[in-house]
User: Which sequence fits this backbone?
């Protein structure tokens, strides 16, 4: 084996190890009771995240649509898709424990849901999904998870190839992920290699002491992310302009990119979405801590919303 092939093999083994670390972390997270959930230090952030996903679904998912939910987790978005009256749902996640929970959630509600769901355990950034899933989706969603594909170029390309081949022409790719602009800005402003507040902490390794990321290192820039009661694992920076141009190679054109703060400011003016925000309980009048804390709002600034459209003319509905 020559040196280049040897290095590629090493990177592949390392990226698999990291993917397993992420999968084990999420698999090990047990379902919370209602009381545990309500007493979470980031309960309002979780509710805000649900509001953002609900608004995205309201804007881009239509009655009868077929939806592919990549990295679907415990199936937390099943009810949102039921409200959107979709026709087909397929969820895939690398964490076996999460797929088991999603299956239970689906089985508990299946009589009342408007659609049939199929759930698979698999690595969406390594396997060719076309081998096990019949394509032709109107919407592909990847919520809070695409950054796990950015450990190597091969994984990022596999993720986008899967999205593109599964979507119908004119179909939407919707998602949420960390905003690397904000993370890099905060890293540069920090004294050392870590920053955060009472609800989150981000730390970079010594190799990033210069805090400069060159064109040559667009992939594999790892940091450790800890969000109270939610995340404690390695993640990777996704540089948006590069993500956008890579997506374009797979026939996916950018429709929308907004930091969570801007997304909230834009849609909170709409009466329908304000009502939804109240129903979900993300915003209160501030009394008794019934609204987002400043630290939760700062954590929300770490994320962005994206929407892409698959090139080509949509077929008849
Ligand atoms: N999308 C869900 C949601 O919004 O509630 C779950 C989000 S959770 C923060 C991230 C999810 O990404 C976890 O369920 C994790 O198992 C999944 N994940 C990470 N890497 C993955 C991969 N390579 N393939 C499939 N799922 C992956």
Assistant:
């Amino acid at each position: 084996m020559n040196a280049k092939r040897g290095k590629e093999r090493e990177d592949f083994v390392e990226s698999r190890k990291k993917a397993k670390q992420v999968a084990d972390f999420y698999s090990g997270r047990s379902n919370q009771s209602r009381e545990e959930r309500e007493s979470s230090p980031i309960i309002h952030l979780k509710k805000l995240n649900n509001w953002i996903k609900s608004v995205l679904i309201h804007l881009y998912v239509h009655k009868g649509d077929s939806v592919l939910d990549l990295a679907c987790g415990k199936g937390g978005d099943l009810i949102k898709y039921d409200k959107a009256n979709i026709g087909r749902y397929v969820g895939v996640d690398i964490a076996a424990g999460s797929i088991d929970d999603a299956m239970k959630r689906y089985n508990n509600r299946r009589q009342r849901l408007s659609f049939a769901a199929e759930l698979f355990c698999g690595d969406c950034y390594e396997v060719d999904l076309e081998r096990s899933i019949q394509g032709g989706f109107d919407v592909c969603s990847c919520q809070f998870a695409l950054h796990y594909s950015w450990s190597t170029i091969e994984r990022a390309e596999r993720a986008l190839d899967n999205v593109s081949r599964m979507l119908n022409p004119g179909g939407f790719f919707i998602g949420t992920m960390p905003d690397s602009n904000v993370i890099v800005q905060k890293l540069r402003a920090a004294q050392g290699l870590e920053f955060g507040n009472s609800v989150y902490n981000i730390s970079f390794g010594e190799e990033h002491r210069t805090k400069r990321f060159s064109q040559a290192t667009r992939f594999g820039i790892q940091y450790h992310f800890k969000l109270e009661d939610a995340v404690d694992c390695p993640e990777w920076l996704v540089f948006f302009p590069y993500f956008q141009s890579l997506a374009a190679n797979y026939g996916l054109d950018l429709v929308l990119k907004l930091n969570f703060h801007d997304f909230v400011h834009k849609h909170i003016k709409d009466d329908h979405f304000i009502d939804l925000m109240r129903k979900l309980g993300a915003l209160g009048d501030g009394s008794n801590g019934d609204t987002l804390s400043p630290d939760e709002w700062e954590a929300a600034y770490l994320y962005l919303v994206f929407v892409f459209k698959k090139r080509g003319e949509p077929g008849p509905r």
Notes: The mean pLDDT is 92. The first strand starts at residue 66 and ends at 70. The longest helix spans residues 3-27. The pocket of S-adenosylmethionine is lined by residues 19, 22-23, 26, 71-73, 76, 93-95, 98, 123-125, 143-145, 148 (CB under 6 Å).
